[in-house]
Each structure stands twice: as structure tokens, then as C-alpha cells.
């Protein structure tokens, strides 16, 4: 039965470490963790979640796409568009904080799915932004490192 995981919040050194690749013959061992990450992201109303955000420095990201939730293992960006655009971002690991981040408009990303099959997707707009944001987590980068006009909302 999947469970909701605790989200690591900034400042925490785990969020600043580079994550390790997962060996393809070990992917099945992470099935339960992936289920927990999916449930956690959905329950917390997130659009993406990276393993460092739950205290694991491994290369897994969960992204809520139009056609459902996708688990990306060892994702890497192969191609980036020439053009970039500004957009507002927030993060479960930096609660109640938002800022404008300049990201590539379109990216091509390669990853393994939870069965070890390699996929390549071309994403644009919000999906491209989310992929870049989540892969940044795997490299120890938070959106606040790149953002302008950072605003922190007061909690009620």
C-alpha cells in the first residue's frame, strides 16, 4: 500500500547533492518507492517530484503529465531549444515561495521507465519547464538559485 512521504525542505544538504544513476538491473527494487512518490506528489498537489526531495540521492523524478503520471529514471536532457522563456515556479521543497525562472522552451529528454525500457520525449511549454526543474533537483540545484523576483507568501 503506497504511503505519503515526508518532503525535505530547504535548507538541507540532501537537496544540494548530485544524485546517483540507478543501474538498469536494480530498477525493480524501486517500484514501491516510485508508488510512494506518485501518491505523495498527487496528495501534495505537485506537478513534479524528485527523489532528493524525499531524502534519496538517486535519479528518479515523477512528473504529472497530461496523459497521466510518468516515472523517469536516470533522465537526461539531450537537446534544448535555442529559445528560452520566463515563467513562475514554486517547489514543494521551498514552501510558499515563488519566482520567475528562465528555461528552455523545448527539450528532448531520454529516460528509463519503471520496467527499464528507454524512452525519448520532446516536451515544450510547461512540461519542458517541469522536466528541467526536476532534473535540476538531481543536480543539487533549486529553482531559487535561478529565480528573479522571489516572493514568499505568509502562511495563514
Task: Give the secondary structure arrangement, pairings included.
Elements: H1 31-43, E1 48-50, E2 60-65, E3 68-80, E4 84-91, E5 94-104, E6 106-112, E7 118-124, H2 126-138, E8 148-152
Antiparallel strand pairs: 1-2, 2-3, 3-6, 4-5, 5-8, 6-7
How would you characterize this protein structure?
The model has no long low-confidence stretch (mean pLDDT 95). It is built from 2 helices and 8 strands, in the order αβββββββαβ. It is of the alpha+beta class and 156 residues long. β4 and β5 form a beta hairpin.
Task: Kindly summarize this structure in a few lines.
The chain has 156 residues and is of the alpha+beta class. It has 2 helices and 8 strands, in the order H-E-E-E-E-E-E-E-H-E.
Structural class: alpha+beta
Alpha plus pi helix count: 2
- Outline the low-pLDDT stretches: none
Q: What is the 3D form?
A: globular
Average of pLDDT: 95
Distance between the termini: 33 Å
Q: Which strand order does the major sheet show?
A: 1-2-3-6-7
Number of separate strands: 8
Q: Mind describing the biggest β-sheet?
A: 5 strands, antiparallel
Radius of gyration: 15 Å
- The sequence of SSEs as H and E is HEEEEEEEHE
- Percentage beta strand: 35-45%
Amino acid at each position: 500500500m503506497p504511503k505519503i512521504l515526508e518532503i525535505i525542505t530547504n535548507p538541507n544538504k540532501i537537496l544540494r547533492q548530485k544524485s546517483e544513476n540507478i543501474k538498469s538491473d536494480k530498477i525493480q527494487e524501486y517500484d514501491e518507492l516510485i508508488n510512494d512518490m506518485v501518491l505523495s506528489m498527487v496528495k501534495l498537489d505537485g506537478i513534479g517530484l524528485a527523489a532528493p526531495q524525499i531524502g534519496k540521492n538517486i535519479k528518479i523524478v515523477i512528473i504529472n503529465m497530461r496523459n497521466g503520471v510518468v516515472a523517469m529514471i536516470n533522465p537526461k536532457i539531450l537537446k534544448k531549444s535555442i529559445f528560452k522563456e520566463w515563467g513562475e515556479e514554486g517547489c514543494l521543497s521551498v514552501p510558499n515561495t515563488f519566482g520567475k525562472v528562465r528555461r528552455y522552451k523545448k527539450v528532448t529528454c531520454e529516460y528509463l521507465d519503471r520496467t527499464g525500457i528507454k524512452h525519448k520525449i520532446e516536451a515544450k511549454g510547461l512540461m519542458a519547464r517541469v522536466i528541467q526543474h526536476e532534473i535540476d533537483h538531481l543536480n543539487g540545484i533549486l529553482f531559487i538559485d535561478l529565480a528573479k523576483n522571489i516572493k514568499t507568501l505568509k502562511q495563514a
